[in-house]
Hints:
The structure is a single chain. The protein has about 220 residues and is mainly alpha-helical. It has one domain (about 20-175). The chain contains 7 helices and 4 strands; from the N terminus they run βαααβαααββα. The strands form 2 sheets. A two-stranded parallel ribbon has the order 1-4. The longest helix has about 35 residues, at about 25-60. The relative contact order is 0.15.
Amino acid sequence: MAKTRTASRPGGQALPPVALIGFGRRLGAALIDAFLVAIFTGIFLMLVALIGAIIRMFRPDRPSPFGPLLLGLLVVLSVLYYVISWARSGQTIGMSLIGLKVITKDGSALGWGKAILRYLGYIVSGLALSIGFLWIVFDGKRQGWHDKIAGTYVINEEDSYLIPKGAALVPETKGTAWGWVLVWLAFLIFIPGALLGGLLLLGPTVDKMLMGLFGRG
């Protein structure tokens, strides 16, 4: 059996291993970030609706120019939030609150290139029924597909200084946390049903409110 190489300080003292963070804590950070992006999105939507209502008030013959651009601008908002956070500090707000940091294998900052590549990996992970995120549970290096694509790892913020010194990267916990697989399956069933139910129950009401706001009711 091959022996695991242990990194040492110049004085001969072994460096502590750096823990690769698993699915649970990363999910907590992701939920915080999703909540913040939702708040930013809500504020943005209110501003767009207000500007659109003003335009309709003075120029009722012209449709609001913001509608076709809305989806694209919301995507840009998400891209800016994640890419700027990863490129500048390796941390989103959610990761900072939980004490996590995303790094490259040598401990260096992601930079703009890897940050953009990681966001593209996010899209791939999400489109595949979020299996790319769940992959963290099974992977020995605790990497999701987006981490594989960008060559990144998630560690505790306070351990980041150890990576350039050659500390070993080891999983925070051993084995596979099958409970998260069950949670993923539950959400996979629940979320589409909840969205469909919400559309059926609230869709007509929301549509009426928007039509009234833009003066089309």
